[in-house]
Design brief:
The structure is a homodimer of 141-residue chains.
Chain A: H1 9-18, H2 25-36, H3 43-53, H4 59-71, E1 76-78, E2 86-88, E3 94-99, E4 105-109, H5 114-119, E5 126-139
Parallel strand pairs in A: 3-5
Antiparallel strand pairs in A: 1-2, 3-4
Helix pairs in contact in A: 2-3, 2-4, 3-4
Chain A binds a DNA duplex (30 and 30 nucleotides) through helix 4.
DNA sequence: GTGAGATTTAGAATTATTCCAATAAACTAA
DNA sequence: TTAGTTTATTGGAATAATTCTAAATCTCAC
């Protein structure tokens, strides 16, 4: 697994505060669950994991928390294909490798400068603030 | 708009035949509709356009036809974000630029070799058969 | 401790897509 | 052609993912 760069649980509260948002137990738990198992879970999967520790939480809250974390940029929402959105707490620039056999997704570290280099293919008049790269294929198991 | 490389309406019938599939009026019309306006429409949008020319077609058939065309590789299904799948008849290797202001999507031609170059960042054991690149930002209008 | 605003909650509503069973169309072999 | 088989289309029901809504709860500043 690549080295990862993420907000820590401690800094989450601060990041939220900077956006005028509160660090609620639900938000913290959802974030910690994402950190604990970095397998790009869907909202439903996050809900199941979170529920084990906080049985009263609702699915709507999980959606709300995930959306909040995405807004604060401590979590990335990922959409490869038809199907539910997946969530990723890795904030380091990285690509995704989607293993077509297993359906699993791996983070791929990007060499510094690659994204800028890729941006140079854009014609005049296009100003990209983000670049996403998705590989599909077979990974050694 | 970048130059595009697509199956022609004429060759569609042959491509389908190669997969043991029939060139039905519905499949041909769906494909022609995609060629006519290359704005990455959703299935619903395709349905609306197709219906204007063939009022009896059903939404299920539009989904079926799109899926068939994707299987035959004459159409690409694109998923950027939460929301319906979009369809693109451009078979030339290209990236997508998603204009966050307008919500529209532009095809970006790729210089030869770029995809192979990007693949070189993959660690040992990863074998990608496709690479997708998505830009997000602002395009000059 | 009160009031304002933020957050959570459960369930209803919506959206996108797939499934299903019946009909229709096209192809094959006699 | 014509019966038989396979393939495709159709409309509606079913499912899946997400968003909405309105009420209850919590938190913070005063």
């Amino acid at each position: 697994m690549p080295e990862t760069s993420t907000a820590t649980p401690e800094s989450l509260s601060q990041t939220l505060a900077e956006s005028g948002l509160r660090a609620t137990p639900q938000r913290e738990l959802v974030f910690n669950i994402l950190l604990k198992k970095r397998d790009h879970p869907t909202a439903d999967e996050v809900f199941a994991r979170v529920k084990a520790e906080m049985p009263t939480i609702s699915l709507a809250t999980v959606y709300n928390c995930l959306e909040t974390l995405v807004q604060c940029r401590v979590v990335r929402a990922v959409n490869f294909e038809r199907g539910p959105t997946r969530y990723c707490p890795n904030q380091k620039p990285h690509a995704h490798f989607h293993d077509e056999q297993t359906g699993s997704t791996h983070d791929i570290d990007l060499p510094p400068g690659l994204l800028d280099q890729v941006k140079t293919i854009l014609p005049e008049g296009y100003d990209a603030n983000s670049v996403e790269i998705i590989f599909r294929g077979k990974a050694q198991s």
